[in-house]
Amino acid sequence: MSDTFEAKRPPTGVGDGVDLIAWCRRMREHHPVWLDDETQGAHVFRFDDIQTVLSTPEVFGSDFGELTPDFGEDVPNFMEGVLTMTDPPMHGKLRKLVSQGFTPRSIARLEPRVAELADELFESVAGQDRFDFVSSITYPLPVIVIAEMLGIPASDRDLFRQWGEALLASNYELPVGAIPEGDISSDIVDQMKEMRDYLLSHVEDRRNNDRGDLISRLVAVEVEGERLKDTEVVGFLNFLLLAGHLTTTLLMGNALLSFADAPDALARVRGDRSLVPAAVEETLRHRPPVIFQYRLAKQDTEIGGVHVPAGRPVVTWLLAGNRDPEKFASPDRFDLDRATTGHLTFGHGIHFCLGTPLARMESRLVMERLLDRYSDWSLGDPVYYERSPDIFGVKSLPLDVTPA
Ligand code: HEM
Fold first, then answer.
1. How far apart (Å, rounded) are the C-alpha atoms in residues 244 and 358?
2. Burial of 399 (C-beta count, 10 Å sphere; 0-12/13-18/19+)
């Protein structure tokens, strides 16, 4: 290991991840906790340090309200009611309310419907020897599922995609770890307003009509005698709509990228379908759809022996932690036999992802169908990657397929 690697910002653009993974490795080896003087961000790369940050919410908070620029009342900030941006004690109350809809049992109940939807999507490309895996299968499936859970028309999914892209686009240019400031483009604001008005109309409808869906439950529920405000329900719905589909879409595409790197693993899964869950889990570790998570140092503190002053954004690099050799041996290898337990892809601690069973189930059902229907596939050209700096995965993945 060379002892000269100057700390620097991540390469621009995640793309296929090769440069970013190399950067994560060198930073973890040489600057496991790096304070970027210019942006003030504190970057954390080691598995153990990341776990410590994520499991200490009293020191490393998630409420970024004070750091978020106020663009005026007319620009929705979608931050109220968002679990991932809420600290205790409010976080615990909100989480208790919404977690009922996400217990392993309530998710398991959805399985027949998810399987039916996956069958329909694969049927829609039957007979084609080439199709885009993302637009045909992995984008529509999770978005239809989350829309049905919430009780909003899945036929509006092109709108959700458009809004999601606008929200992601607002952070393309910002260096990772920097505190947002300045202006926001009027196009993005228009998209955000459209999304807010759309969600608000559903919330208002449920205030008058109990439709037996998740939105109806959220408007009716009381937190210590108080109902959630419309802005809180809208913020949470916005988060769920985005968190509930983009990440899972990316996971399924990433599985195919990992298989392309590890054809032996694919051959084993072909021969033994009981390995599908292990393949999904190893994909999660190997290519996490969410690359990093932010926290905010609430007080002067220390991470891995480095002093971090109060008020600093802390960037926990989940991708770097998942490839820390202290935790996972030969971490760059896609290995179906490894114990993946504890990977950081779904976070850690009080904010641990609520959608974990759903994401795993959707991915398993899709992988099983892909293997059943096609005896072989190869990745076509061109593959397009997502552009946001915190997102790892493909936006478009053409597959050339050989039917089974
Ligand atoms: C592969 C797919 C997914 C990945 C990689 C992922 C990743 C994450 C991560 C890293 C967090 C922690 C955030 C933090 O620490 O601040 C999180 C939280 C959360 N996720 Fe997921 N997620 C996925 C799928 C889903 C799905 C399908 C849903 C819902 C339908 C969902 C709902 C949530 C919720 C509600 C939280 C907030 C929990 C809290 O703050 O208490 N996620 N997710």
1. 9
2. buried
Sole residue written with tokens 């926290």: 295
Position 368, amino acid: E
First to last CA, the chain: 47
Q: Is 226 exposed, middle or buried (0-12, 13-18, 19+ CB in 10 A)?
A: exposed
Tell how far the Cα of 98 is from the centroid of ligand 1, in angstroms.
13
Phi first, then psi, for residue 375 (nearest 5°) are -80, -15
- Give Cα 81 distance to the centre of its chain: 18
| Ordered domains of the chain (ranges, CATH) | 18-403 (1.10.630.10)
For 293-328, the DSSP string reads EEEEE-SSEEETTEEE-TT-EEEEEHHHHHT-TTTS
Q: Distance, CA 248 to ligand 1 centroid (Å)?
A: 10
Instruction: Burial-class residue 320 by CB neighbours within 10 Å (0-12, 13-18, 19+).
Output: buried
pLDDT in tens, 72-126: 666 666 667 788 989 998 899 888 878 877 888 889 999 999 999 999 999 999 9
**CB contact at 8 A, 361 and 141:** no
Residue 14, phi then psi, degrees to nearest 5: -80, -40
- On the question of pLDDT at 374 being above 90, the answer is yes
- 155 Cβ contact list (under 8 Å, min separation 6): none
Is 239:246 a contact under the CB 8 Å cutoff?
A: no
Which residue is it, tokens 């776990």? 51
Which of 213, 280, 353 best tests ligand 1's pocket when mutated (most atoms within 8 Å of CB)?
A: 353
Residues in contact with ligand 1 by the CB-under-6-Å rule are 62, 83-84, 95, 146, 240, 243-244, 247-248, 251, 289-290, 293, 345-347, 351, 353-355, 358-359
- Which amino acid does the sequence have at 116? E
How many of the other CB atoms lie within 10 Å of CB of 144?
Answer: 20
CB 288 within 8 A of CB 392: yes
